[in-house]
Amino acid sequence: MSELTLRFWPIFFELYESLPRQGPGNRASAARALAFCGDLPLVAAVLDLGCGVGAQTFHLADLTSASIVALDSHAPSIERLRATVSERGLTERIQPVVGDMAEPGLPPASFDLIWSEGALYNIGIEKALHVCHGLLRAGGYLAFTDAVWRRDNPPPAVKASFESDYPAMGWVPDVLAAIERSGFSPIGHFTLPEEAWWDDFYTPMEIRIEALRGKYGDDEEALAVLNQLAQEPEMHRRYSDYYAYEFFVARLMK
Asked: What confidence tens digit (pLDDT) does each residue in 73-97 have?
């Protein structure tokens, strides 16, 4: 393993943990997805899977009266979320938990809504849907975002990026079919708007990358990692018509 590879993950987390959120999304999109969940209990039990530092967790707390378990495998993100929960006086409503999405260790049939923004693909959509099926109460809702293709024949840079990060990425009909195979009924879906990529994600990322370039000065290996990370927002700026994030909402059949 090269020294550059060894440097990648520490710098990656130094960048991503400092951002308002770790993937595309915004409050307006969360509100639009929640509108599909019309008959949630007043004080619903919600699980936010792959919560990161909790941007969407706080949207859920603001938009509902729910009790929320926020789970992520990356302990530093959960520590940051726990501190923010305390600062905002939400410890009675939000419970940050370090855990594995594939085996969350939570009681079966204990949630009214499972929420996950840009995270389920990490364990595979089919596996994730199976996990969510077991954790939801009958009639419960599942709301999640997933990357999907929008056009055939993407440029080599785009194809290579997604083959590395998400080789099983499909199209909207593929995800809808997986939802139905897993015992859910699709309720609705929509494409995240461009501002959901830029306002709280890529714009802060590019600003932070520039700050880190200043911090690392003449450290060529660190700067090479930052240049690699900077390719993601630049790729989206050039090729976003080839792919998207889609928000899916489904319901567990009773």
From this structure: 999 999 999 999 999 999 999 999 9
